[in-house]
Specification:
Structural class: alpha/beta
Radius of gyration: 25 Å
Helix content: 25-40%
Shape: globular
Oligomer: single chain
Amino acid sequence: MSESYAGKINRKLLKKRRIIEAASGREKADLVLKNATYVNVFSNELCQADIAVAEGLIVGMGNYEGEIEADMTGKIVLPGFLDAHIHLESSLVSPREFVRAVLPHGTTTVITDPHEIANVMGTDGIEYMLQATEGLPVDVRFMLPSCVPATPLDESGAILDYRAIDSFYDHPRVQGLAEMMNFVGIINGDEQAVEKIVAAQAHHKKIDGHAPDLQGNDLNAYIAAGVYSDHECHDLNDAIAKLQRGQFIMIREGTAARNLEALVPLLCDKYAERCMFCTDDKHPNDLLEKGHIDYIVRRAIALGADPITAVKVACHNAARYFLLNNRGAIAPGYLGDFVVIDSFESFQIEKVYKRGELMVENGELRDFPAPSIEPYLVERAHNTFHVGTLTAEDFAEKRPRGIIGMVPGEITTVDAGYSDRIDTEYDVLKLAVVERHKNTHHIGIGYIQGYGLKSGAVATSISHDSHNIIVVGTNEADMAAAVNRVVELNGGIVVLDGGASVAEVPLSIAGIMSEEPLPEVNRKLEDAKEKASTLGVSDGVDPFMTLSFMALPVIPSLRITTRGVFDVSRQTYV
């Protein structure tokens, strides 16, 4: 039986009285961090006091006694960190495994855009992620995907208009509308793009942006439409132009894009209030070797940022932007989310508390249960491949096709002409995208130069943003075998040579996430990279990340879709 309104008020009244009693000192607090030196994000200074927590909330700073007391002498206590924009799916593991990876790094709240899984499963993907993150010891908040598919050129698993996502705004963990990548549609007043913004505003929600290098009146039009932030700034002038027009700037330092060094001058008195940190995409090896938001703070300090400013940008600013008014600070009424470090210089995390509970001590994570997910959604997430068995003939295109020329160290490409054959001597390989959602048998074929493969084929079901199967190979038979193996695995990464798989990374959740622990996924991923390198993939080329972005038809100049090679600049197939 559901709780009555009067019952809810009475339950909360009892809790509130307990908080008041502990705050006043008339009762012992649940937890007291004794002799704490902590970052005060309101006065921008270090303060000293005992920090008392009751019912998961900070009740006061001063002199307190607690049922549990922890001496903080010689340590610095910070508010828990917040990632302002991430796609959890980019970690390649389940949400629970993601939390196990980031909580030891002091992250206690993340704002995720389930854009990737929504492109595979539609609204079922959003619901799956909501259930898979319920009750985890990192608060997972959501921005609803704005572009599914990313462009009309894509063949994704779903098409979501504003009506499809509207009911999700009533969910208590949904903060707004995620990155509006279709800035061209917004600027041109496209009805379907603009109505998503209008609907989000009708629910009084935030709208995040995605508009690299947008300038002048086009930028004015985009912001005037109601877009409040941007995480695509890779240039200081671009960031300042957007900030001057009222946008908040998410300084991104992830795996695929690293913008902190260029934007660290924003971390000053003049601009820092309008900034926050995000990772966007964070792959397994980055999470294990570098960390999460703590890595960004540590690096910002090393680049000359004031430590208190860097900490404030890592927690308080994002909390205010997303109207999460009870986190991001150490003050009465705020959540008892703490990160305890040794010093600003080394920035080693010793303890992490979530709602007053010690969750991490010296790298050791306290265990927690996995959320319960409806059986229907579990089955749906493990049955997302609808592709018939392919043969070499399916890839045996003889007509000249465009060659996508890779640019070293970049995800942009150039037009490298045409070819009608594979030529490993000149590093011209066949590239294809296989539609996998609706068994259309659509296969887009082209060529790529700069990848370096000398033998075999590489295939992956991670291909942004529609997540069809993308494959590159030195012969059609291995290409077909690699794609077939990806389908057999219900998704994943396959490195294959001579018809036999030499390395695999199974990704059975929607074809984009693994059910295994992060270290095991990382081990398999690194092994697959090594095997791909052995088969000739060029030094400095990530064999899988590179492929995944080749299918995203919003990045110039050439990309490949299920319909063939597409010129993004000219908006035509070649």
